[in-house]
Specification:
Blueprint: E1 2-5, E2 11-15, E3 18-21, E4 24-27, H1 32-39, E5 47-53, E6 58-64, E7 72-78, E8 80-86, E9 98-104, E10 110-113, E11 118-123, E12 128-134, E13 143-145, H2 167-170, H3 175-180, H4 187-202
Antiparallel strand pairs: 1-2, 2-10, 3-4, 5-12, 6-11, 6-13, 7-10, 7-12, 8-9, 8-11
Length: about 200
Amino acid sequence: MEVHELAIAGAWVFTPRQHTDGRGTFLEWFRSESVTKAIGHSFDLAQANHSVSRRGTLRGVHYADIPPSQAKYVTCVHGRVLDCVVDIRVGSPTYGTHAAVVLDDVDRRGLYLAEGLGHAFMALTDDTAISYLCSTTYNPSREHGIDPLDPDLALPWPLDVPPLLSEKDAQAPALKAAEAAGLLPSYPDCLAFYASLRSQHGRGQ
């Protein structure tokens, strides 16, 4: 499995080796030891999610309060998406920037994003299916969103695909408004949390 760290600290892309013959294709879309080696601690699985979206569906930018927030490992099992990791950690050197990755059923990449990062994706094909593993369970009282069409974020959604948003995502605040309201995670808090995860891993927990 090839591992590539993105420009935003805390985000990695994992490209699996695929084995194809006359029967079809086999691959490991997630391997814990590869993820652990990259992120420096174990990735504890608490919940697995699956979504199916029509072309143009735009989900995000979603994030959760830290601690514990929610780390994710995302893959596209059918179709194609443009997936964006957004650094919403106030004080981060890359605050307000994003890294975009195409996930599809051809290369079958996996995307890991650490706790405290924002996540959004747009389905580029009909019946696009996304599966993702989460480090914590969903807690609606700690979940938040940022407007995925915020011009200050300038996320690279394709102009030829009309975005389809949920009412909740359409009403989400812009990044500056969320920061002013004190809704965003701080970079020092995130670093401290990452350090605690590495420390627990070092003790064999």
